[in-house]
Write a structure and sequence with these properties.
The complex is a heterotrimer of chains A (376), B (274) and C (178).
Chain A lengths: L1 E7 H12 L1 E6 L6 H13 L3 E4 L3 H13 L3 E6 L1 H17 L3 E9 L5 E5 L4 H6 L8 E3 L4 H18 L2 E7 H4 L2 E7 L43 E3 L13 H16 L2 H4 L2 E4 L6 E4 L4 H14 L4 E6 L1 E3 L3 H8 L4 E6 L5 H8 L4 E6 L8 H11 L1
Parallel strand pairs in A: 2-3, 2-4, 4-5, 5-8, 7-8, 12-13, 12-15, 15-16
Antiparallel strand pairs in A: 1-9, 5-6, 7-14, 11-13
Helix pairs in contact in A: 1-2, 1-6, 3-4, 10-13
Chain B lengths: L3 H6 L15 H15 L6 E5 L7 H4 L3 E4 L5 H11 L4 E7 H5 L3 H10 L3 E7 L2 E2 L5 E2 L23 H8 L3 E6 L3 H13 L4 E6 L3 H7 L5 H10 L1 E3 H5 L3 H4 L3 E8 L5 H16 L1
Parallel strand pairs in B: 1-2, 1-3, 3-4, 4-8, 7-8, 9-10
Antiparallel strand pairs in B: 5-6, 7-10
Chain C lengths: L3 E8 L4 H14 L3 E6 L9 E9 L13 E4 L2 H10 L5 E5 L12 E5 L1 H9 L5 H13 L4 H11 L5 H16 L2
Parallel strand pairs in C: 1-4, 4-5, 5-6
Antiparallel strand pairs in C: 1-3, 2-3
Helix pairs in contact in C: 1-4, 1-5, 3-4, 3-6, 4-6
The chains are: A alpha/beta (376), B alpha/beta (274), C alpha/beta (178).
Chain lengths: 376, 274, 178
C-alpha cells in the first residue's frame, strides 16, 4: 500500500535498512545519530532481527563485522567521535571484505565539538579514516526520502562489492522530518551475496573468478571451515608474507571499486545545460543550494547545481565534463573545504569559489547566493 | 607422526606454529582441541575468534571456523557471531594483554551481559609478540622491556575480574596441569552463559629470561610445584598464597544467557504483532 | 497557500517540539509539503527550546526557518529573543502572561491565555502544546480541524485521547474568540 508518512531522516534510514534486509544492528548512543539505534531496537525484533547496545563504538563495529561474517546483513550508526573509534575495524572489514553499513550522522568537530550542530567535517575521514590503502564507498543523502532509498543502495553495494559502505548523513538530514512515500508493495532491488558455484574453489574464500573483481561468498559458519584474518592473506584466507600476495591483494581492494565507478557513482544535476555557474554540494547542504538556485533562476541567472550522491567514489568524470562547459564552480559544504580539494584537483579551467561554514549553523540560501555573486 | 588429535583438529599445512620453543601456548591449544573432541562437537559448529598477539595465532592453526580479528576486540566480534548464529559454539582465545588491557572493556561487558561465548585466556604475563613488555597480569616488581626498573603496576587477576563482572562460569587452569585444564575448558564450553578459563602459560623467551625464571622446563616445574586448588586457596592467607597458581572452578551460576534472552524478546514482540 | 515558516519557542518540557511535529503531521495528512526541525541539545533538558516547521504547497528546499511568518512564544525569554528578531510580515502568538516588548516590529501580536487554558480549563498543564497547536491552526488556517485532530491522535500516547481532544477544542475556541 502506498502511504505518505511523516518521518525523521534517522528513522527513515532504519526503515530503509530493514527493507534492504538488515537483521542485526550494534551501536552505542551518540548525538545526533541516537534515533537510529532507538528505532532499530524497536523495529528489529519485530522482523526477527536483533539489536544490541555494545559497550562502545569499537565493539559495535566489531560486532556487526562478526555477525556479517556468518551471513547477516548488518549496520551500525554513529557520529564524529564514534566514527573515529570505528576506523580500525572498518579497515578490518575492508581487508577481509566483509559487507556492512556504517552510518555517520556528522556533527561539528573536532573532538566533542558542537554535538548537536550540523557539519560535514568527516568527508575525508570517510575516505581515508582507516589506515592503509583501501577503497571505500560513501553515500550522502539530502532528504528523508533519500535516507530510505539510498540506504537500500548502500546495503546493495556493500554486498555486491564486499565492502563497508559509509552512509554519510549530517545533522540537517538526520533530524529533519519530512513526508516520505513508502510503498509496501513496490518492488525494490535487493542484492544478496553472490555465492560461489565452482566446487573446485569452494575452499578458497578469496578466490576471484576470471573477469570478476570481487570474491564470491561461501559463508563462514557452515560446511567449510574458513579462516578470516586482518593480516595480508592469500586466496585461501591464511596469512602470507609474500610481497606479491600483498601487492595483489591491496591492488585488488582498490581496483574492485575503481574498475566499477560507472556502476557505483550516482549524482544529480539540475539547470546545468545552460549554466554559467554550477554549485557543487552534497548531503543537507544541497537543500540550501536548491533554494538558492531556484531563487537565482527566477531572477534569470544561469546557475545550476551538481550534487554527488556517492561522495566516494567521487563523480570525477561527470564533474570534469561539466566543468568544460561552465565558467564558474562554487563548492558549498559545512566544513573548511574538503570536497573543495577534490574539486580543485579535478577542475582545471573554471574559476572556483567556496562557501563553507564551521560555526554550527546551517549555510543559508542567501549565503550561497552571495558566494555565486562573488565568483562571477 | 602427528597424533590423531592434531590431524583432526589442527590445520597441519599451517604448522609448525610460530610460537617459541618451550612456549606454553602449544599445550593450551592442544587442551582446547582435546576439550572439543571430548565434547564431540562438530568442527563446523565451532567458531573460534581471536584478536592479536601470540595466543591469537591459534585461530590460524585450529581447524574450526576461525576469525583472526583486531587487537583486543575478539570478544566484541564473537558477540556479533553469537547473536547472528546462536547455534554455533563460539570460543575466543586471547592473550592477557589482548583480553585484559586493550580488550578489558569488552571482557567485562560480555561477562556482565552473560553472552554465551567461552573465553580461553593464554595468560603468560607478558606481551610476547612485541618483545616482552609488561602486561596487565605481570606481577608487581617483575621486569619487562617497558618496566626496566621493575613493574610498579598491580596485576589483574583476570578470573576474579570476570567473575566480579558477572561471568557465569569462571575457572583457572595451567599449562602444566593439562588433564584438569581440559576438563575446565570442557565445562566452560558446555556452560550456557559467558565462561572464562584463565590458563597460566609460560613464556621462557621473554618473561622467563628477563626475570631469571630459568628455561621452559624450570618454568613448567614451577607450575607443578606451586599450584594449589581453589579449595586449598580458600584456607590460606594472602601471604601464604603469594607466588602460587590456583587451579579449579572459581564461579558457576545459572544467570540467563543473553542471546536466548534476546530470542525471547523476538518471540514476544512477534506474538504481540500477530 | 504560500509558504508558511512557523517557529515555536518556549522552555524545555512545554512540548513545543511535539507541537511542530503535529503541525507537520497535519500538513502531510492534508497533502501538503512540510519540513520540521528543532534545535537539539541541553535546551531539551529545560532551557530555551525552539522548534520549526515549514508548510508549503511547493517543494521545500532549504529546511530551516530564516524569516518566520509565524511565531509562538510561551516564555518571556523566547518572546524577547525571537519576537524582536521577527520581521514585519510575521504574526506572533504570545501567551497572555507575557509582556510584549516595545521593540517588536511584527505585523500582528496576538495574546492568548494558552498556559492558563491548559491548566484550568483542560485541567492538565501538559496539554498547553495541544491548546497552542489548535490556536495556531485557528489563526493560520493551515489544515482542516479533522486533519489536525487526526495528526494529534497519531502523535500522542494511547490513553490520552480524551484530554487531548479537550485541549484541541479549547485551543480552537481561543482562536475563534480573537
Amino acid at each position: 500500500m502506498k502511504n505518505k508518512v511523516l518521518m525523521q531522516g534517522n528513522e527513515a534510514c532504519v526503515e530503509g535498512a530493514i527493507k534492504a534486509g538488515m537483521r542485526f544492528f550494534a551501536g552505542y548512543p551518540i548525538t545526533p545519530s541516537t534515533e537510529i539505534a532507538e528505532r532499530s531496537a524497536v523495529r528489529l525484533p519485530q522482523v526477527g532481527g536483533k539489536f544490541i547496545q555494545m559497550e562502545d563504538e569499537i565493539a559495535s563495529m566489531a560486532a556487526i563485522i562478526g555477525a556479517s561474517a556468518v551471513g547477516t546483513k548488518t549496520m551500525t550508526a554513529t557520529s564524529g567521535p564514534g566514527f573515529s573509534l570505528k576506523q580500525e575495524n572498518i579497515g578490518y572489514a575492508c581487508i577481509t571484505e566483509i559487507p556492512c553499513v556504517i552510518v555517520d550522522v556528522q556533527r561539528s568537530g573536532p573532538s566533542t565539538g558542537l554535538p548537536t550542530s550540523p557539519s560535514q567535517g568527516d568527508v575525508m575521514q570517510a575516505r581515508w579514516g582507516t589506515h592503509g590503502d583501501h577503497s571505500i564507498i560513501a553515500i550522502s543523502p539530502s532528504s528523508v526520502s533519500e535516507c530510505y532509498n539510498l540506504i537500500i543502495r548502500a546495503f546493495n553495494l556493500a554486498e555486491k562489492y564486499r565492502t563497508p559502505v559509509i552512509f554519510l548523513m549530517d545533522e540537517i538530514v538526520g533530524h529533519l522530518r519530512e513526508g516520505i512515500e513508502i510503498d509496501d508493495e513496490q518492488e525494490v532491488e535487493i542484492i544478496e551475496r553472490k555465492m560461489k558455484v565452482r566446487p573446485d574453489v569452494l575452499h578458497l574464500p578469496y578466490h576471484v573468478n576470471e573477469g570478476e573483481d570481487v570474491p564470491r561468498f561461501h559463508l563462514t559458519g557452515y560446511d567449510i571451515r574458513y579462516n578470516i584474518t586482518g593480516l595480508v592473506h592469500a586466496e585461501d584466507g591464511f596469512p602470507s608474507n609474500s610481497n606479491e600476495v600483498a601487492h595483489n591483494l591491496v591492488t585488488r581492494l582498490m581496483k574492485k571499486i575503481e574498475n566499477n565507478v560507472d556502476d557505483i557513482v550516482e549524482f544529480e544535476q539540475k539547470y546545468c545545460d545552460d549554466a554559467e555557474t554550477v554549485i557543487v554540494c552534497y548531503g543537507g547542504t544541497a537543500r540550501s543550494v536548491m533554494s538558492a538556485v531556484e531563487e537565482l533562476r527566477a531572477k534569470g541567472e544561469k546557475v545550476g547545481y551538481f550534487r554527488p550522491i556517492t561522495v566516494w567514489p567521487f563523480p570525477e568524470k561527470q564533474l570534469k565534463a561539466l566543468s568544460s562547459k561552465v565558467k564558474n564552480i562554487v563548492v558549498a559544504e559545512h566544513n573548511y573545504g574538503q570536497i573543495l580539494l577534490e574539486v580543485q584537483r579535478i577542475v582545471k579551467d573554471c574559476k572556483i569559489g567556496f562557501v563553507g561554514k564551521v560555526d554550527g549553523t546551517v549555510i543559508t540560501p542567501a549565503e550561497i547566493i552571495k558566494a555565486v555573486e562573488e565568483v562571477k | 607422526m602427528a597424533s590423531e588429535l592434531i590431524l583432526k583438529y589442527m590445520r597441519e599445512e599451517h604448522l609448525p606454529h610460530i610460537w617459541c620453543p618451550g612456549c606454553g601456548h602449544g599445550i593450551l591449544m592442544r587442551d582446547v582441541a582435546q576439550a572439543v573432541k571430548n565434547l564431540g562437537i562438530d568442527q563446523e559448529k565451532v567458531c573460534l575468534v581471536s584478536g592479536i598477539g601470540c595466543a591469537s595465532r591459534a585461530a590460524g592453526y585450529m581447524d574450526f571456523q576461525t576469525m583472526h580479528t583486531t587487537h583486543g576486540r575478539a570478544i566484541a566480534f564473537a558477540t556479533g557471531v553469537k547473536m547472528a548464529r546462536p547455534d554455533l559454539e563460539v570460543i575466543v582465545i586471547a592473550g592477557d594483554g589482548d583480553c585484559a588491557a586493550i580488550g578489558g572493556n569488552h571482557l567485562i561487558h560480555a561477562a556482565r551481559r552473560n553472552i554465551g561465548i567461552t573465553v580461553i585466556v593464554f595468560n603468560n604475563d607478558i606481551y610476547g609478540m612485541t618483545g616482552g613488555q609488561y602486561s596487565p597480569t605481570t606481577p608487581t616488581g617483575e621486569l619487562g622491556t617497558t618496566a626496566p626498573y621493575g613493574n610498579i603496576d598491580r596485576p589483574f587477576d583476570i578470573a576474579i575480574l570476570a567473575a566480579g563482572a558477572g561471568a557465569s562460569y569462571v575457572a583457572k587452569g595451567t599449562a602444566y596441569h593439562a588433564q584438569q585444564t581440559i576438563k575446565l575448558i570442557e565445562n566452560g564450553i558446555k556452560h550456557k552463559g559467558f565462561s572464562l578459563i584463565d590458563c597460566a602459560g609460560v613464556c621462557p623467551t621473554y618473561y622467563g629470561r628477563k626475570n631469571k625464571k630459568g628455561g621452559a622446563v624450570d618454568m613448567m616445574k614451577y607450575q607443578r610445584d606451586n599450584t594449589i586448588t581453589v579449595e586449598q586457596a580458600a584456607k590460606m592467607t594472602r601471604e601464604e598464597k603469594a607466588g602460587k597458581l590456583i587451579l579449579g572452578k572459581i564461579a558457576e551460576n545459572d544467570f540467563p544467557e543473553f542471546s536466548s534472552e534476546y530470542q525471547k524478546i523476538i518471540d514476544r514482540v512477534r506474538k504481540e504483532e500477530r | 497557500m504560500s509558504k508558511m515558516e512557523i517557529r515555536l519557542a518556549g522552555s524545555g518540557g512545554q512540548g513545543v517540539i511535539l507541537a511542530t511535529i503535529i503541525l507537520a503531521e497535519a500538513a502531510i495528512i492534508a497533502g501538503k509539503n512540510t519540513a520540521q526541525s528543532q534545535s537539539y541539545g541541553p535546551e531539551a533538558r529545560g532551557g530555551m527550546c525552539k522548534a520549526e516547521v515549514i508548510v508549503s504547497d511547493e517543494q521545500i528546499g532549504f529546511t530551516k526557518v530564516t524569516h518566520p511568518t509565524f511565531l509562538l512564544a510561551l516564555t518571556q525569554a523566547s518572546l524577547n529573543k525571537y519576537g524582536v528578531e521577527a520581521g514585519e510580515d510575521c504574526v506572533i502568538l504570545a501567551d497572555s502572561t507575557l509582556t510584549v516588548p516595545e521593540a517588536i516590529k511584527a505585523k500582528k501580536v496576538y495574546s492568548l491565555p494558552i498556559l492558563d487554558t491548559a491548566k484550568t480549563e483542560v485541567g492538565k498543564a501538559f496539554t498547553a502544546n495541544i491548546v497552542a497547536v489548535a490556536a495556531i491552526n485557528g489563526i493560520l488556517k493551515l489544515v482542516s480541524k479533522e486533519d489536525l485532530e487526526a495528526a494529534v491522535l497519531r502523535q500522542i500516547p494511547k490513553g490520552t485521547e480524551e484530554i487531548n481532544r479537550k485541549a484541541l477544542h479549547a485551543g480552537q475556541k481561543l482562536a475563534e474568540n480573537i
